[in-house]
Design goal:
There is one protein chain. By secondary structure, this protein is an all-alpha fold. Helix content is about 60%, strand content about 0%. Helix 5 crosses helix 8, helix 9 packs antiparallel against helix 11 and helix 13 packs across helix 15. The longest helix is centred in the middle third of the chain and has 25 residues. The protein is flat and about 70 Å long.
């Protein structure tokens, strides 16, 4: 018996009856021989962790555009906090922690530079539309490894696609990540907003704090415990109604006071205009994109989609550098 087979046997003996067992995966689009050490979801987790798209998340905006302070979240640190929260819940409920972690680490791989403002800009100019969750799936299915993709299992890809609020993951592990994403960003965005001086703890309505907690630590603890208590022994991942309402109300509060705050979004219109200009330029000059993107067009991918692929893959700094190179005149050197 291989190490992988022993790990799969331990899953059957220990996991909840509602967990996704590695040996029951619906598999990969392209057949591969099994690893003798790692079950399938552990392999997927490793592939995502070693991908170029994952590394680029460290220079992509979470909420505050290209922040200068050392302690603001980026898309990468957000992803790690989602993973930590999701793994805690999965372990407590005896779900498949490897599957949970793989979905969490991959859920935002398709995010644009400058966060949701960048996503909005590409959606406005691309006739095919653009969403970060569909792009995340496109990254792992096609764009990584120079057009070959990561060949992940069906369950991980399903969780990545359905992590958004309106998503409906097919596995309980995917449902854990979907909730953990909200829990993570609501709380760490409060922390960053306080650091930026645009929100104080006392400004959060008392009715929400009485239910959820008076500090970020208390709120995380409250929400995680509520999910575990209400989901244990059930074929679903749920929260108590009053806790879910308080979390949603706090989320709406954050939209009004942070995500739409003029101070936090003062540079957003500039970032959106910049990405629109980049989209227009590369649409007119396809040959200015790297060869791997031109190969996608040769393989039949729509030009509009490939231009989005290139721009969405950029970090904040890289997109600014390309814009400066293309549109900002340089001083005469001689």
């Amino acid at each position: 018996m291989t190490i992988r087979e022993m790990a799969e046997l331990r899953e059957e003996e220990y996991f909840s009856t509602f967990a996704s067992l590695s040996r029951n995966s619906r598999g990969r689009d392209v057949f591969e021989e099994q690893c003798d050490i790692r079950p399938v979801y552990q392999r997927d987790r490793d592939r995502i962790l070693h991908s170029k798209a994952f590394r680029r998340l460290k220079h992509k905006t979470q909420v505050f555009l290209t922040p200068q302070g050392d302690h603001y979240r980026t898309r990468l640190t957000h992803t790690l906090e989602v993973s930590q929260t999701a793994r805690t819940i999965a372990r407590a409920l005896r779900m498949n922690e490897d599957l949970t972690e793989a979905i969490a680490l991959g859920h935002d791989l398709g995010h644009t530079p400058f966060g949701h403002s960048g996503e909005s800009a590409l959606n406005e100019v691309c006739p095919l539309g653009f969403t970060h969750f569909e792009q995340s799936l496109r990254v792992v299915e096609l764009l990584e490894k120079k057009g070959r993709g990561l060949n992940l299992t069906w369950e991980v890809r399903d969780g990545i696609l359905n992590h958004r609020t309106a998503g409906s993951p097919s596995t309980l592990e995917g449902k854990i990540v979907r909730l953990s994403d909200k829990i993570a960003y609501i709380n760490h965005d409060i922390d960053d907003a306080e650091r930026a001086g645009i929100l104080t703890e006392e400004e959060i309505p008392l009715e929400y704090r009485r239910i959820l907690g008076y500090t970020i630590r208390e709120r995380l603890n409250t929400l995680i415990h509520d999910i575990v208590r209400n989901s244990e022994g059930r074929p679903d991942i749920i929260m108590s109604p009053h806790m879910e309402k308080a979390m949603q109300d706090l989320r709406h509060f954050m939209f009004e006071h942070v995500y739409k705050n003029p101070k936090a979004k003062s540079e957003e219109s500039k970032a959106k205009n910049m990405l629109r200009e980049l989209y227009g330029y590369y649409s007119r000059h396809l040959d200015a994109m790297p060869a791997e993107y031109l190969e996608l067009i040769d393989r039949g991918e729509a030009e509009e989609r490939v231009v989005c692929d290139y721009i969405a893959g950029m970090t904040d700094q890289y997109s600014m550098a390309r814009f400066s190179e293309l549109f900002i005149p340089k001083a005469w050197q001689y």
